[in-house]
Structures are given as C-alpha cells and as structure tokens.
Amino acid sequence: MSTNLRSNLGDYFGPGKLPELEATILAKAESYPSMIPILYNLETTDTDIYQTTTLSGLQNPSLKNEGAPVSFQALQPGYDNTITVDTYATGYRISKEMVRDGKFNYIQRATESFAKGQYEVKEIAAASLLTGGFTDTGPDGVSLFNTAHPLENSGATGSNLGTAAALSITSFRALRNIMQDTVNEQGQRVVYSMAYLVVGQALQDTAKEIVKSMYNPENANNAINTVYESVQLLPGGYWNYLNSDTNFFIISQKNEHSLTWLDRQPLEVTSDYDKHAFAHEIIGDTRWARDYGSWRGVVGNAGA
User: Fold this and answer.
1) Helical spans, DSSP H, in 65-137
2) What is the pTM of this model?
C-alpha cells in the first residue's frame, strides 16, 4: 500500500510552470453547478465587442379583394446594443518556505478559494442582470423590467413588469399572465412558454409550494392548484447569487428570450516562479460579458 509523503509532493511545485496545480484549478472551477447555461443563451466571440439589434417583423396578412394590389410592408429597425467584453483576473503567491515546510493544507485552501472565485464572479454578474433589471437602462431606453417598452413598429408600448407584490399564487399568476400577454413589434400578442421560476434563497420554500403542490397551499378547501408544475424551478430550487429576498422572475425557453452570456476567452491559468521573492505565482484570467437585446421572454416582479 502506497503512502503519500510530503517529500513526494515537492515536485508539484517547481521553478517553472506548475501544470498540475493549473489543471487542479481549472477542473475545480468547472465543477461548481452554474445557472448560466440553464438560463442564458451561450455565445462566443473572437472580438472585444458583440453587437445585437432588433428588427420589426411583418404584420399579419390582410384581406385582398380580387383585382386589388398586394399591400407591401417595410421592416423597421429596432434597438441596437453593443456588448463590450471585459477581462477578469486575479492571482496568488505561495512562498517557497510554505512548500518546503509542507503547508499543503493552506495551499489547498487557497487553490479551492481561487477556483471558486472564478466561478462566483460569473454567477454574481449573471444574477445581477436580473436584479438590476428594475432600474438599469436597456437598449430601448427603459429598464429591462418595465411597463412601457416602446415597440419598434407600432408606436405603442409593451410590458414585462408585474405590480410589486410578495410572491404568492396570485402574484405568480399575474406575472404569468403578463408573459402570456407579451406583444411583438407590431403590438400583436405572441406565444411565450414559461421555463423557469427564478427566486433567491429567501423565496425557495414559497416557490416550491406554488409550483410543486397539487392543491392550492393558500386554500383550506383542497382546491386544485392550477399552476401545479406549470413551470420549472432551478436545480436546488433557488439561485443564491440573487441579492434580493423579494424579487422573482419568470423566464421563457432560451430560444424565446435574448439573455446572452458571451465568452471571449475561457479561464486560463498560468504560473511562474519569482526567484527574487522565493515565491510561486499563480494567475488566472478570463474574458466575458452578459447582456440582452430584447426585453421579451423575461418578466419580473420586484416583490414586497
């Protein structure tokens, strides 16, 4: 039976590259469960910017009487958005003395913390697009969640914001109805399918009661729950990086909304040895961005 000795681990750190440690960080960073692939449309780019635009569709065909000319329509440009890719980087150093003295438990903690940080900064950014959607201005000049989104080709407005209320079956139904009333660029109602009810940790039990109870949890007469299993919950039931205890959101299927996660460069880990400081250096950097082009397919309620 083999025994791992401290002396056998000395080769893990060398004066040059540290490929084993780099591989450990990469594998650890990829092992955490991310909500981004579940909720966001994943795109890649080979430039530092990514541009999107909306474009009005055509109105429904109109009655054409015999001998009358066909009525031609024009496509109308919508709202442009330029997504700029940013770099996120950090590093840490391990002294030669720590390696020589066998302080591998501290080194392991630093490595795991480093990897988790690379994961968490993305989750926080992705979640903040939703929580900031009640105030941050979007491509059409209003916030992501708003009652007055200007339509591209009709002069009217559309809404994807619910009246502020605590999460309940009543407020969930109201937000569902807003999604079902979503209109296109012409002001015509279109069909959007609910995929996920997204909540933070504080609302996980309420969300589960709403969509996982066969009977209405707010009714003592065993009335059926009409929204039972009408929408999915995220794995684990909540997104703990939503920094709100009251916000809740309904997000449609990914092919129906434009929440976009843009990868320019995946996580790269490099290492070196500073012979003047007697220290091993580990640096990780990645480039990405997140944004949206259109408000449709996502509805939100600030809660109460």
Assistant:
1) 96-100, 104-131
2) 0.83
